[in-house]
Every structure is written in structure tokens, then in C-alpha cells.
Amino acid sequence: MVKKDQLERYNLPREIKFCKKCTISNHRPRITFDENGVCSACNYAEFKKKVNWQEREKELVELCNRFRRSDGSHDVIVPASGGKDSSYVAHILKHKYGMNPLTVTWAPLLITDIGRQNWENFIDSGFDNIRATPNGRINRLITKLSFTHLGDPFQPFIYGVTNFPLRVAIEKNISLIMYGENGEVEYGGDMKNAYKPTREITDHNKHYFSGMPPEAWAEYGIKPNDLMYYMAPDFEKIIENKTEIHFMGYYRYWDPQENFNYCLKNTGFQCNTERTEGTYSKYASLDDKLDGVHYYLGFIKFGIGRATSDSAHEIRDGRITREKGIKLVKEYDDEFPSKYFKDFLQYCDVTEEEFWKVVDMWRSDKIWENYMGKWRLRKAVWNE
Length: 384
Ligand SMILES: [Zn+2]
Prior knowledge:
The chain is mostly helical and 384 residues long. 45% of the residues lie in helices and 8% in strands. Strands 1-2-3 form a three-stranded parallel sheet. Strands 4-5 form a two-stranded parallel ribbon. α4 packs across α13 (256-266) and α15 (306-316) runs antiparallel to α16 (322-332). The mean pLDDT is 91. Residues 19, 21-22, 24, 38-39, 41-42 line the site of zinc ion. Zinc ion is lined by residues 19, 21-22, 24, 38-39, 41-42.
């Protein structure tokens, strides 16, 4: 296990700066700040206000016309978890634009009750679905390895949600895959796809796999055969299938709160009865018991927790002020995900001691300082 400095590994600037408009810092990988100290996601949010959405919707109709089938077979793949965003995409494609979606789910690592319920409600609301459940033993093993070696237990899940829809597309001979928002653009990241509807297939490994594609785990004793299910299909097959990956966020104004309202009405979506740990919301990313540790590690590595991401987006959507956002970050960002902590340790087969060892290994001393025996952020949005 070789620890590489975070700043170097993710190519982060040495000096921590916070966006003048939201709560995000320049330590979010791939985010850029303009000369006025405003982040690329905030600038994109401004740009969204000027977009002619009627024109964009026309483009969506044209896209659907290009792929729609009339023989009853599926004509679009929607990667769907049963969460508010993917459910919204599947539902409007089917009911507003007359498409026949095949929804595709990669099973969460350790599903929560509410996650299972929402997924079932979604299917019951009227969708065909293919669900992939990978080998449990291997899934746990890669989760543990990626927790230790990448500081993020979510890697096997990210492989699945990224690559499995591509596999199904080829198997079922469906060329269109429709995702929700382009996270890189909406939340800050690589802006090269900001002004077009599609994602380039060749970007996959670069953006999502932190330089560790599935096959890289063979080095840690996992048989190549056991890694197959996580891998992308052959590039030639993707091209041969004329596969296109599009984002609904390009065609329709993307607002997570509106998606939530839509799904309450249309897909049987339910939010949690309690607030999600590490943030103040009840409706986002609530289907995996390992979510909490995934976000907590992001907080350790980049100083960016869940409340930062949520508040930054809500500020951009004009739902809260920056002052309010800063308060929420101060209150919730550093909250430890204790609810499913025992489940996490058991799932990964690590002791509590080993857990903290890994956490501290990923704690950059450029971001953190030890003060009177306790770790604290050198610079936070509330003490700029
Ligand atoms: Zn910003």
C-alpha cells in the first residue's frame, strides 16, 4: 500500500480556496475557478438560466424520434436505481416522449430498506428492469481493497453502474443510453462536455475509476475471470452497436428538488423519515448502507463532505443563500456516519482499528491539522 499525496494524486492546487458564490472548494477534483473566484459549477448554473430550454426540448424530441421503435422492443436504456433522478428520467421518457425504456440496475453493495422499497415501487410503477447482482464474495473483496488502496469503498459499485448499462446495450442491441445529469458539469469537474448532450465513451476510465480500472485488481490476487462482470465491453463492440450516451440534464433543466417532487407523484418514491448523516437532506443517495463511509472518505481526502455538495447545489439553484449554506456545512459536514458503521466493518471484514488507520492514511496534512489531539480542517468555508 503506497500512499500518494492527495494533491499530487488528484492534481489539486496547494492553496485551498472557496468559491465566492457557493460552498465548494478548489479541492474538488477537476473543478476550475474563474478569475473572480467563482467555480465552474456556479458559472454553469448561470449559463443554465440563459439556455433556451424549448429549443433543447426540440432536440430531445428529435433524438427520441431517431431511436424510437414501434415493434414493442425497448429503444432506450435508463440506468436506474429507484432513486429520484433516474426514476424521473425513465418516467418522462416513457410517458412524455413515448419511448420504451429498459431500466438497468446495478445492485447497491449493501442495500437499505428504503432503497429496496423505492426500487420495488419504481418497477411497480411500470418499468421493465434488468438487475445485476455481482458475486458477493468478490464484491466484498474489491470493496475492501478499494477502501484501503483508493480511500473509497465505492469503486466496485462505480464500475458496475458505469459499465453494466453498456453491456446490456450491446446484448439487447439498443443504441441509446440516457443518464440523468452530467455530474462533472452540474457539480463541478471537467467542463469539456458542458455544452453538448453526450459523453465520450473513451472518458470512462479517466473520470470514474481513479486510474484503477477493474482489471487492475488482478494484481491483488483477484482472478481476471472474477473481474469480467465489472469490466466495460470491448470498445469495438460499443462502436459497432452505435452506442450513444446522453444526459437528460442537457435537454431539460435539471433540478434535483423538482425530480424529487415528480417522483413522489409518479413513481412511488419515498424519502427517508430521518436526515441522512453528514448532511441535512432526506432524499438523496439513500439506498446503500455504505454511502456514509464513501462520502466521509471524500470529506477526509478533500475536505468536502456531503453537506458541502448538497448546499452548493441548492445555492446554485437559488433555494438557499450562501450564508445559510455555510451554516449547514459547519453543522453537518463532519458528522461521522455511525448508523451503518458496524455493517460497514462487517461487510469489509475490517476492525475498527484498521478502519481508522486507513482513514488517517488518506487524511492529507495539507488539509488537516492535529490540534490538541484532535483533527481539524486547516481552512473551512466558515473560517475563511
Ligand atoms: Zn461555486
